[in-house]
């Protein structure tokens, strides 16, 4: 395992022992409450569009609208939150989709090169369940509360671009399947092509050829909001879904949010892994790349409310 990968996850009872940390809250809506020492709250789309909420999910017109900002802009947007890289950053999520949105932001910070970033396992849900104090929900950075502008050069962080998979890399898997394994974390109906109305901005069904379905993303989160045990999950992936040892894993979902949960768990397993930020939206956008729909036994799969990403 790469040094430090096992420490990407922090439990509620460990947080105070870490010393002063920058607590970054990620929320979709206002009013869920915040950790008492939280520094700032953002929407996950802040890393895609800064303070321009008119471009936040689901207001995408092209795949790149749902991608991380270009690297210099991304680093400056993060620095505008007060993150300097000299202090540990702990990311936590709120609401029903806390794991998805917090993992997305954790991944984005690491891609930008923030040196020490960790996820509070279970987010606000686990914090509240432990009987810890909670303050009134913070107002998110956005149009009403813009982040300070950061001029000059972006921070001198070393980006981790190996955590990002491009469409060209996924295309390479079509030619050389031994180069990596693409793992699809969407619902089975999305993968098989029976669910087409997940998004408001695209409705193509099916999956990337030579990709492997590994269950819906919500199977990676326990009922208490914490992530599943990565060592047990590694066995399940290998034995039930044929995930290969020793190859780079490319995680895929609709637009690169859900897949960051699988990416983090793969990193905790010690695997080389990347998140495909374009997602199935980017793969299908031009209509020129191959898709493999497969018939599903149950066309009436329920679609839960809320973001799919």
Automatic annotation (TrEMBL):
It comes from the Eukaryota. Residues 54-136, 176-292 form the Rhodanese domain. Pfam families: Rhodanese. SUPFAM superfamilies: Rhodanese/Cell cycle control phosphatase (SSF52821). Residues 289-309 are annotated as: Disordered. Keywords: Repeat. It comes from Symbiodinium natans. This is YnjE protein. Gene3D superfamilies: Rhodanese-like domain.
């Amino acid at each position: 395992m790469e040094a430090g990968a096992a420490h990407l996850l922090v439990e509620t009872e460990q947080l105070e022992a870490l010393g002063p940390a920058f607590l970054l809250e990620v929320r979709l809506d206002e009013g869920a409450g915040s950790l008492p020492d939280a520094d700032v709250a953002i929407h996950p789309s802040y890393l895609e569009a800064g303070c321009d909420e008119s471009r936040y999910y689901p207001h995408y017109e092209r795949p790149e609208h749902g991608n991380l900002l270009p690297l210099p802009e991304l680093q400056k947007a993060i620095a505008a939150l007060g993150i300097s890289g000299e202090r540990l950053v702990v990311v936590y999520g709120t609401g029903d989709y806390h794991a998805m949105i917090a993992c997305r932001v954790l991944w984005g910070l690491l891609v930008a090169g923030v040196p020490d970033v960790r996820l509070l396992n279970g987010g606000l849900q686990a914090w509240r369940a432990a009987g810890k104090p909670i303050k009134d929900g913070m107002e998110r950075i956005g149009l009403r509360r813009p982040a300070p502008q950061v001029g000059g050069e972006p921070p001198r962080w070393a980006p981790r671009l190996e955590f990002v998979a491009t469409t060209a890399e996924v295309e390479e898997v079509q030619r050389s399947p031994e180069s990596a394994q693409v793992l699809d974390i969407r619902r089975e109906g999305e993968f098989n092509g029976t669910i087409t109305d997940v998004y408001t901005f695209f409705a193509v069904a099916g999956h990337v050829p030579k990709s492997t379905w590994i269950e819906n993303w919500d199977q990676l989160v326990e009922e208490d909001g914490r992530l599943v045990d990565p060592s047990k999950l590694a066995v399940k992936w290998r034995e039930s879904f044929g995930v290969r040892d020793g190859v780079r894993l490319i995680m895929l979902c609709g637009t690169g949010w859900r897949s960051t949960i699988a990416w983090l768990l793969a990193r905790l397993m010690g695997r080389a892994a990347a998140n495909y930020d374009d997602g199935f939206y980017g793969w299908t956008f031009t209509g020129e790349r191959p898709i493999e729909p497969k018939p599903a036994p149950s066309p009436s799969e329920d679609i839960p409310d809320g973001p799919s990403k």
